[in-house]
Amino acid sequence: MKDKNTYTSLLAVVGVAALVLAAVFMAEGAYDLKILLPVAFMVIAFELMPIKMPSGAYYSGVTIGFTIALFKMGLCAGSFFITLNTATFFVMQTRPFLRIRWFRFFTTLGMYFISLLAAWGVIALTERMPLLVSIICTFLAFEGVNLLLRTGIIRSITQAPIPAGKMIYEARSLQLGIIIASIVLYKMLLQTTYELFIVELVFTVVAIKIIHYFVAGYVKQIDIIEESNQRYKRMAYYDSVTGLPNRALFNERLTDHINEAELNNSKVGLLFLDLDQFKTINDTMGHLSGDVLLTQVADRLRTCIDERYTVSRLGGDEFTIIIQDIEESEACKCIHAAETILKSLKKRFLLNGKETFMTPSIGISLYPDHGTDAEQLLKNADTAMYKAKEFGGNTYTVFVPDHQEAVEKKLVLQRNLRTALERDEFYVLYQPQLDLRSGTVQGIEALIRWKNEELGEVAPAEFIPLAEGSRLILSIGEWVLRTACAQNKAWQEEGFPPVNISVNLSSVQFQSEELPATIQRILRETALDPKWVTLEITESLLLQSKSRTMRMLNELKATGVSIAIDDFGVGYSSLSYLKDYPFDCLKIDKSFIQHMNEEQGDELIVRTVIGLAHGLNMTVIAEGVENEEQLHYLHQQSCDSIQGFLISKPISPDQLSKQLWVDQSLGRKLH
Questions:
Q1: For 408-461, what is each residue's pLDDT tens digit?
Q2: Which domain holds residue 201?
Q3: Could you give phi then psi for residue 394, rounded to 5 degrees?
């Protein structure tokens, strides 16, 4: 920290002048050694055994020496003693002596000399007053000016404001010492004999040391209490991971800004931010890496947003930004802030030396347009944020009343979903897969459906994400697997030809360490040979730790089932995991199949994927086949199997067995 500036330089110049006066005093020799030596001894003694208060202040032990000199021998004598005092301090604090920082020495000497001038002036002004009054006024002048000068030095170096409360606290901490020292000095100056003067001098040293001891303990205890209060306040109002204001402080500030906006007829904007796919980071890299990412996100939010705005972390991966003092014509401030955040978070993050990318979904609400209190404003911003997630994330959405209807519908879905399994509301439909070489059905995919008394038929795209978010998918997924395996075994026992049954695995199921054991238990309970079961996983599951993913896939393979990668091409496609992971089958996503006749690029992709999969000894199933042209092209490219409405829509097990094996109407359709 640089301590040279105009203020401290002026003090250093004054310090040089004080040294000159001290030299003049010694050169003239106009002093009484009987007074000079004891006072010099007292000054040095206090500096050799200093007691520094936690506040940084010293009581008036040394100051007594200065004021004795002022009363007995004048200003030049006082200059000598403050020079002696300052020199003693710097010699004791610096090892070796030659490393003394002389600029600081003269700055400190200048500070003391100006304080001494103030005390000397007060002596002159109060010379006709009672001696005790003059002494007290002198002490107050010296210590008061000294406190102001020290505060000025700190302010000029750090450029930080000094709280008024701190100055008052330090000033009060000097009062006891000033009063005691004033009484002691008063008695000393009244002594008529040298012996009594020495006695009073010794008494003064002992008395001030005792005062130092008790006051130091008191002040230290006060500081400990204050430090504890600050620590508890920090814990109560600030997030321990990011250092941002937490939910409690956020609520207080938002309420305050709303009250101010009501008085000023202005607006308050609220941005609710949630990180997309943050759970994947926690699951794959660990919670410690997740905390590091949260800290980096918090730092970027602080730097890219106006410092007047409050950035808070509510918990998890949820952040808020309060934008206050918005005029009627400045409502776009919130949108501008959201765009700035999106741009800032678009840049890469580094976690454990690896590049990571994280995008946010941002919801925006505005007071008083979207709520008149903090709770309503937060709720609506949260609702808008979830709407942004529905759009795919990495965007922002401003709240509109329609969003609330969507949230209420979601709450109804969640409420009914929790009891759907108990009320036996789920059922499974089956969609056949046609083998293009034999022209027969060799596989069937099991697809869950939900029919609720209140809601009617609910699409899987609506309830599956909710089930995954609440982890209900663990019990639901287990039920689907058991139902599909039991049905396949029932068909075999009825004498129908054995076929492969495919069941989708959720990412939540795949993360469960109990999955292999669960599969083995279901196979054992249903007595189904595992070679007739295929588990389908999506590409997003492969973003987890490669070692863990490989271990889990190998454990699943050890149960005897086959593994297929579903919806290939729409996620985080990578040729490396096709080569490294033990897949048996690859399913091409229907989005490529549906546009094959319209875009040559899709045909090229389909042809390339089929060739690649065959080269890696995987079978290929094309999803979403709806017309003969698509079927013909896939047959030309040696695709193994197809699935789609051209063959059959998902149907009940009774319909499937009837159409496929009983009356063979499905078989005639395929031919």
A1: 777 788 888 989 999 999 999 999 999 998 888 889 999 999 999 888 999 998
A2: 53-234
A3: 55, 40
